[in-house]
Amino acid sequence: MAVPVLMNWSGGKDSALALYHVLHDARYEAVHLLTSVNAHYQRVSMHGVRVALLDAQAARIGLPLTKLELPEQPDMADYERLMLAALAPLRARGIQHAVFGDIFLADLRTYREQQLASMGMQAVFPLWQRGSAAILRQYLALGFRAVVVCVNEQYLDQSFCGRLLDEEFLRDLPPGVDPCGENGEYHSFVFDAPYFAAPIAYERGELVRRTYPAPAGSGEAAFWYCDLLPAADASFMA
């Protein structure tokens, strides 16, 4: 019998492809989505995508969505407390497995496993060590479509922000940049997937540069964000 799983859904390509693998794995049944959201701005954490577009993704997938609302600049204690509070009712429903789209960050995997173990839950990593370039090409071959919504200025200039995530994008990546952005080089928004009931119509808004304190007090980190707007005309497709 398939076990129910929680999908940690960022709205980007890695979580989207991880969900695809879960949906095609007889061992699991995806029953719920969980997304971290900036409570003040009502946008997906790190990605900067509006909650309205996140809701559109959940509706097209056909799964219920829990939004983990975080303060604007949460510390780890805040994050862990709020995460455990969000997981508790799902665990009480019998969900004992949580799916992540991580590929090769071993420290992050260990952290997730330890946090879940404290609640009697297990982590599932469908993309683990599959190879970033191969993952991205599989994603494209399966018919996923996404737009790049955030880039880290340390790795990519603003011209990459707002572009479609396609073969041309992959060819244009500078040397040393992970094709899947696994080191935080970029984030994306999936607007079409094999399991969406219909594509999501959107319009590109303004391009915004924001800076944040870098880890360990090492100055600032700068990011470019492409604001996406739900399309005013539902017949419009990006």
Would you summarize the structure shown here?
By secondary structure, this protein is of the alpha/beta class. The chain contains 6 helices and 10 strands. The model is unreliable at 233-238 (pLDDT under 50).
Architecture blueprint of SSEs:
Layout (H helix, E strand, L loop, with lengths): L2 E6 L4 H11 L4 E11 L4 E2 L6 H11 L3 E6 L5 H17 L4 E3 L6 H12 L4 E3 L7 H10 L3 E8 L14 H6 L13 E7 L9 E12 L6 E11 L8
Parallel strand pairs: 1-2, 1-5, 2-4, 5-6
Antiparallel strand pairs: 2-3, 7-8, 7-10, 9-10
Q: Can you walk me through this structure?
A:
With 238 residues, the protein is an alpha/beta fold. The chain has six helices and ten strands. Strands 1, 2, 3, 4, 5 and 6 form a six-stranded mixed sheet that branches. Strands 8-7-10-9 form a four-stranded antiparallel sheet, with helices on one face. The longest helix is centred in the middle third of the chain and has 17 residues, at 76-92.
Keywords, separated by commas or semicolons:
29% strand; four-stranded antiparallel beta sheet; disordered C terminus; globular; six-stranded mixed beta sheet; 6 helices; single chain; 238 residues; alpha/beta
| SSE-based structural type | alpha/beta
The succession of helices and strands, N to C, reads EHEEHEHEHEHEHEEE
Structure annotation, total helices: 6
* Oligomeric category: single chain
Mean pLDDT: 93
What is the global morphology?
A: globular
Largest sheet: 6 strands, mixed
Radius of gyration: 17 Å
What is the CA–CA distance across the termini? 40 Å
Give the DSSP E fraction (strand runs of 2 or more residues).
Answer: 25-35%
Strands, total number: 10
Proportion of helical residues: 25-40%
* Poorly predicted runs of 5 or more residues: 233-238
